[in-house]
Every structure is written in structure tokens, then in C-alpha cells.
Amino acid sequence: MNIPEWTKPALMGAGAGAIALAIVGFSWGGWMTATAAEKMSDKGSTAAVATALTPYCLQNAKNDPMASGVMAELKAANSYKRRSIVEEAGWATPLGAETPDRALAETCLDALDVNT
After folding, report:
1. Section 89-106 average pLDDT
2. Which pTM was predicted?
3. Which positions, given as ranges, span the membrane (predicted)?
């Protein structure tokens, strides 16, 4: 079988083009692997659930008899410690859960506007 002389350069060019296309696609084209897409989806859904449960957290804060003490503690605390204060107060623990939700505590803190 005779293979034309141009076959090898054509196949090399096609391979180089495929590699270049993959590099450009993943770098600038917005392509991603299934794992990266799943992580992005999980992060988005966690944020959406936390946002949906924020009124629940605010209601827990409003109904807590110790709320004024917790709010004073939040205002006096450093920003990196505030989330744990909300978690320890139980405001970020959804119904039926035994542990507080980190994302809910963070969105609750934003809604409480403790920074002012």
C-alpha cells in the first residue's frame, strides 16, 4: 500500500491543531471538565440554599432570649470569629440538623449587618 507523501505532515498538523484547540478551549473558551462543573454546581446550590434559609436564621436570632448578648459579642469580635459565634448560638442550625451550616452562618452574618 502506498501512502501519499503529504499524509504524515497532514496528520501532524491535525494533531497539533487539536492540541492547540484544547488549550485555547480550556483556557479562554470556558470549557471545563465534568468534575469542575460538578464542583461549581455544588458551590452554587449550597449558596442558594443558604440564601433561602437566611430568613430562618434571622428569625432564630429574633426569637433568642440571649440575642442582645450574642449581638454584643458579635460586634466586639473579630471578623474571622463571628461565624463561629452565630454557629454556637444555634441560629445557623437548620431544622432537623444536628450541626450548624457554615454557609448559612455566613449569609446570616451578612443579613445581620454586624459590621456597622
Report:
1. 89
2. 0.66
3. 12-31
